[in-house]
Amino acid sequence: MFEKFSNIIEGKFAGPLEKLSNQRHLRAIRDGIIATLPIIIVSSLLMVVAFSYNQMPESWALAKFIKANAVAILLPYRMSMYIMTLYAVFGIGYSLAKSYDLDGLSGAIMAELTFLLTIVPVSIPDVTDSITALASKNAELNAFLQQLPSGYVIPAENLGSAGMFIGILSAFIGVEIYRFTQVKGIKITMPAAVPPAVARSFESLTPTIIIILGMSTITMWLGIDVHSIVGALIKPLVNATDTLPSTLIIIFLIMFFWSFGIHGDSIVSSLARPIWLILLDQNTAAVAAGKVATHIGVEPFLQWFVHIGGSGATLGLAILFCFKAKSKYGKTLGRTTILPSIFNINEPMIFGAPIVLNPMLLIPFIVIPLVLATIAWVATAMHLVNCAVTIAPWTLPGPIGAYLACGGDWRAAVLNIILIVISVVLYYPFFKMYDKELLEEEKAKEAIEG
User: Does Transmembrane helix count among this protein's keywords (predicted)?
Assistant: First the structure.
C-alpha cells in the first residue's frame, strides 16, 4: 500500500512541487534572503559579545570592559541587522532579474529604488520660540536640542525586518517594470559603439521614470502608508507562526516533502523565512534593549533543537549506523555519514540509507522531529532555555550552534545534547529492524555466491 501511495505522490505531485520550488519568484526570495545570512550571522554574534558580560564574574576585567563598551560594540549590529531588508531587496532583485536574463545589477537597483520610495521621509520641524525659551532655562534640554538633526530622516524600523514583506513586493514590482520595458522595447537604445555600462544606464531610464513617478504618487503625494497597511495584514500571520501547532505543521510539511526526495526546505522554509526573520529580529532587538526575548518559533529553533544533524534529526541515526550496525552496508554507511551529520549535512544519509521512500525509516524520520520540537518548545516556554536571538552558522556542531544561537546560554547546549540522545533512542527500534533486514540480505547473497 505504501508503494502504491508513494507512486501516486511521485507521479502526480513530484513534478509540480519541483516546479514550485524552482519558481523564479520563490527562488529569488530564497536567494536574496540567504545572501544576507553572512551579515546576520556576524552582526548577531556582535550582540552576543556585547552582552557576554552577563555570563562572566563581575570582577573580571574583560566583563567590565565589555559592559562599559556595549553600546559601541552594538553599533555595527545596528548598521547591519537594523537595515537588513535593504540588503535582502538588492539580492532578490538581482536574482529575479538574472532569472529573466536581464542585467542583474540594473534589476537590483530598480528593486532597491522601488523599496526606498515606499518609505516616506520624516521632516524634523524647526524648534519653536517657546521651546527655545524653555531650553534656555534648562542646560541639558538645550544641549539635547542642539544635537537634533535637521531636514529629513528615514524611519529605521521600515528598513529592518518589519519592512521585509514590503521589500519582497517592491523587488518584484521594480524588476517586473524593468522587464516590461525591455520586452516591449520601451527603452533608449544606444549605438553598438557605446560602452555596455553606459548603454545599460540609458536603457534603465524608462523604468526609472515609471518607478519614481508611480511610487512617489502612491506613497508621498497621495499619502498612502503601505507599510502600515501590509503590517496590519501580516500581523495575524506572524503571530500565528509563533505557536507550537504552526511550528509542528511546518516541520511536518518539510519532512513530508523530504520523504519523497523533494527538498522540503526549499519549498516550506522559503515561504516561512521572512516571518522567521521578523520574529528573530524582534528577539534580538529585545535583548539589545536589555529585555527578554519572547518568540520561540524562529528558524534557529528548528535548526538547533529539531533538525539536529540535518532534516529529520538524522544525527541520531548516523550514530546508530556508525556504532551499532551489524550489516556491512550499515557499518560503511555509518562511518561515511557520521562526520557530515555532525556538521548538519545529511544528504548522504537521506539518499544513502536510503530514507527516501523507505517505509521502515520514514516513520521515525517524520515523527522524531515533531517529538523533539515539542520537548524543546516546552523547555523554552518554561524558561529552562533562552529563546534564540541569532543565526549561528548552520555547519557548526549542534551544542555549539545552540549555545551561540541562544545568546551564549549553556543550557541550550545541554538541551541539544539531550535531544540527540532522545533521537538515538527513538530511532533505535527502527534502525535495528532495518539493519537486521540488510544483514539477512547480505547473508542470502553470500549463500548464493558461495
Answer: yes
